[in-house]
Predict the structure.
Amino acid sequence: MEISSTITCVWKKVGRSSTDVPTKYTLYVKELGRNHSKETNGNSSQVNLEIFPHHMPMEIWVEAHNKLGRIESGHLSKDADSFVKTNPPSDIKVISEKTFPTSLLINWTHPIAEEYLKLTYQIRFCQNGSQSWTYVPLVDTDKYIQSFRLQNLRPDTVYVIQVCCKNARRGHGYWSNWSTNATMRTPEGIPKGKPDLWRIITKVDGVNERQVRFITKDPVFANGRIQRFHIKIQDKKDKVKSRSEEWERIPVNRSEADGSSSQREITFLKQIDLADERSVRVYVTAFNSVGESAQASLFIPDKAYGVWDLAPVEGLNLSSHGGQLWLEWKAPKNKAVSEYVVEWAANGWTDWQRENRTTTHTVIKGNLEKFVCYTVSVHPVYSGWTGKPASVQAFVEEGAPLEGPEIVDRKLGRNDVELVWKEIPQDKRRGFITKYTIFYKNGSKTHSVTVPANTTSYTLTSLSGNTRYDAWISASTIGGSARSLNHSFWTLKYAAGEIEGIVVGVSLGFLFIVLMTMLLCIYKKDVIKENFWPQIPNPGESTIGTWSPHHPVKADTPKENCLSGISVLDVDVCDGKCVFEEDKASLPLKKDKYLSEEHSSGIGGSSCMSSPRQSVSDSDEGGDMADTTASTVQYSSVMASNGYKGQTPSSQPQQAIFSRSESTQPLLDSEENPDMLLQEGSKHSQRFPRQPCFTHTAQNKDSTDPADCHQREMEQQELLEPLDFYPLEEDSEQTTPTEGQSADWLPAAPASSYMPQRGGYRPQ
């Protein structure tokens, strides 16, 4: 291949150009006394020399000119070969030799024959995906060569290689462009280093044991695709069993593409349940197609050993910058830390990296995702003992939640309601919840309440009873907010316990009234008995049914409640007038009382009352008799024709008077049939009972001999025996004969035997 006769020149413009004053550039090339030029408006141009002048001097310059003047650049005067820039090498080939896992052999083709130009080469390479190139020193390639061996490479690593060239004469020519990429993987080698062994310990609830998961990463220099791991777990207390433990093979199923990734793969090895009082040591080695790596170990002590009390790091702080998480902490005081393990976990996935013991800040080197919450922990390691971690949560970038909180429960009241909601799942939060806002409305007006982010329940107050409300909750992060679905509810018509209170109150009130009524009845039973069950004389005990001339009335024996303490005055019938005149001054005031009281208990019956009756002498006190007999009800009054009226007996027989009461007691047969009574009265003569013999009391100092009294009674009975019993007129009144009246006064005609009683019930 020959050198082209076309010269290309590039320059840098100076000054300003406008449409009114345009600037033009002229390229000049001078060789062998010939001048070549070409005018252009740009900053580059080409000149064809027809034949390239090898090994001859050449001068090149550029002139700028416009209406205002012209200016000339500096002149380049060199050998013509000094202006040559060759094409890059072609046909780049990279050869991987299995016996040399750390080297690659490169071959290429010269872009121009040595007769025209002798060249020198430059080589650079990098791992696939990296932009950091490594240059081979020029002293190793400053030769006219067509191959080169790259050494000290990493086994089982893909490399990208490029080559360029220039004139071998020092100070002459320009470097060509880089050749196209040539890519090749180095052969596998024996793993260097040891696996990165780690553990995840979880406390098992209800039992005294721990769940330990062992995980590992490939060695830093795996030098090939790891095909399997060998693991051995030794019990530190059981020495015999520890010796008999064998290695367990853990195969790794991994594709070729996984091995090409710069991210180290994590392999799950084994999970065991470890009692709190047990301690074990774990050993792991890695194998590829060439050989076995060094052995890694990890000690898991028992909980009583006190390792968990080893001091953690202090002041752990985490921040997000440029899509990465930066950590900073302070080393534990008075503790010799051998290294730090930075662990981050999210959604059941865990990764970690190790940092030097002198490091107090780092950046997480893993591939972190946006809107994912990571729990970052820093574990200090003390000569193989892992101390207590310090943890913090962080997001690489925050956004609005994917959904709002869900209302799961409510506790209704009359004027309040408690809303309980469920937190948004961690994978849908997309950031840290800063607050919750509760919205509720019962019409067109909407109310809102803001609560802290650590709250999952809130009670809305000042609500209206028996009213429908719509409520929803909004969760907010730095990146935005999301609301829940509408939740409808009705407040209660009555508050909790209000109905029970009303029922209890009414029941207690009713019980109180019943008790008070019972107590009142107990204490006022006599008054109630008198008002609702008055004592009415029993007509069955009356002697009116047997009062006839053939059935003389026997004197009743005084009962317990009968009138007592009466002093009887013995008065002769013939001497009645003088007695009347003698006591005229006092008897008229009492005669009505005698008539009403002595004959009020019944026809021909005794005067038995519920309360004792006073004597004639005791009745002078006026109204006392009415008070003591107020509880008895008058049934009827019977007044015989020869009864005592004003204590003056008449010489003529008088007609008996029946005074009918207003009682509701049933009438006797004789009362219901007065005609029968009249017939019997006409046939038979009435025999009156023996009149009592009155004896003067202390106020009336006369006395009568009992024998004389008996004689007078017999005589009086003989005088009265032929008399018939005639009733008075119903509307006539029983009167006392006056001094002007004749003793033989009789009513003109018989009348009804019933006489209405004045004033209803009269006290006995």
